[in-house]
Design a protein that fits this description.
The chain folds into two domains: 234 residues, Zn peptidases (Aminopeptidase, 3-Layer(aba) Sandwich); 92 residues, Beta Barrel (Elongation Factor Tu (Ef-tu), domain 3), CATH 2.40.30.40. By secondary structure, it is of the alpha+beta class. The longest helix is centred in the middle third of the chain and has 16 residues. It is built from nine helices and 17 strands. Bound molecules: zinc ion. The site of zinc ion has 6 residues, from helix 5 and strand 13.
Length: 342
């Protein structure tokens, strides 16, 4: 799990995925036939069909590199950094978080993220019930205002900091949404000896703010088949009734039927289920009432493509304690590989 640990601990705010991209590029250059970065920053890794035929179908596998994060909005007169969020944070999960500011000179400044206001000892019960807005949060870097203004400016990315850990068969860390899929994409390229498709594994940018990288790279590649790999809700935890569980950790890769951005193409759903059954790859079905993946962009690209998502069940999604099962990761690679060599 060293590879996933590295991926998880790298910063990659939407629009500032360069460190994740550079790392992935160094891992895939040897195993892909072609690697290039497009104007938005998508990393496009191509594997040509083994029997080079002009009519091989184009498959695009999309794994987004970005994570929900912040940009510096302003620096206050008293030297605190105010932030603007990119992507969906639940502010209840943002109290007392360590963050990293990537400055334009390339160095990093560590700080503490907290909501403005009084500490516990000084608040009334009423005040403690109030959930703050993101605009009320600030970062304390410990630096004097003058130094801070010299080193930090609006637009510098601010990402959460968290160690990646193994917990039995589970692993936990920040932004496994969607570095878990980046891991799958890298492993797929490493393990795929041959394919009948003209395969493009694309590590996309800016998914968390509207599937933007998949929209442009999908237009470029114009795939016949689009497959997004992403995380999905596993609400197999206390306080959620069974009937509301979307997926369950350890039950295998989730073959998405639909979410609020795409309905998976029936032919692909059938093909993936049949393959998973045939090859005895652990799998489950996913019907997600809210949210979406890059498949939503691929399905609508140009005149459309057949699209589907394979999901990795994830607990505590969009927190720094995102947790997944190693077996589900492996099942996702196995099913993709089975599809691409079939
Ligand atoms: Zn995601």
């Amino acid at each position: 799990m060293d590879l996933l640990k590295k991926l998880s601990e790298l910063p990659g705010a939407p629009g500032r995925e360069e460190r994740v991209r550079d790392f992935i590029k160094s891992r895939v250059e040897e195993v892909a036939d072609e690697v290039r970065t497009d104007v938005m920053g998508n990393l496009i890794c191509r594997k040509r069909p083994t029997d080079d035929s002009a009519d091989a179908k184009r498959v695009m596998v999309a794994c987004h590199m970005d994570e929900i994060a912040f940009y510096v909005r302003r620096i206050d007169e008293d030297g605190f950094v105010r932030v603007h969020n990119l992507g969906g944070f639940d502010t209840r999960n943002l109290f007392a978080r360590r963050v990293r500011i990537e400055t334009r000179s390339g160095d990093e400044i560590i700080g503490n993220l907290n909501p403005s206001g009084k500490p516990y000892h000084m608040t009334t019960e009423e005040e403690r019930k109030k959930i703050p807005e993101i605009s009320e949060f600030f970062v304390d870097t410990g630096l004097e205002e003058e130094e801070l203004r010299e080193r930090v400016r609006p637009g510098d990315p601010v990402t959460l900091v968290q160690d990646f850990v193994e917990m039995g068969e589970l692993v936990s860390g920040k932004c496994l949404d969607n570095r878990a899929a980046c891991w799958v994409g890298i492993r797929l390229l490493e393990q795929l000896e041959r394919t009948n498709y003209d395969l493009h594994v694309v590590f996309t940018v800016q998914e968390e703010i509207g599937l933007r990288g998949a929209t442009t790279s999908g237009f470029d590649i114009d795939p016949d088949i689009g497959i997004a790999v992403d995380t999905t809700l596993a609400v197999d935890i206390p306080g959620v009734p069974n009937e509301q569980q979307v997926t369950e950790l350890g039950d295998g890769t989730a073959i998405k039927i639909l979410d609020s951005y795409s309905v998976s193409h029936k032919e692909l759903v059938d093909a993936f289920i049949e393959l998973a059954e045939d090859k005895e790859i652990s799998h489950q079905y996913e019907v997600l009432p809210m949210g979406g993946t890059d498949a939503g962009a691929l399905q609508r690209s140009r005149s459309g493509s057949k699209a589907i998502t394979l999901s990795i069940p994830t607990r505590n999604i969009h927190t720094v304690t995102e947790t997944i099962h190693k077996g589900d990761l492996k099942a996702t690679v196995d099913l993709l590989r089975a599809f691409l060599v079939a």
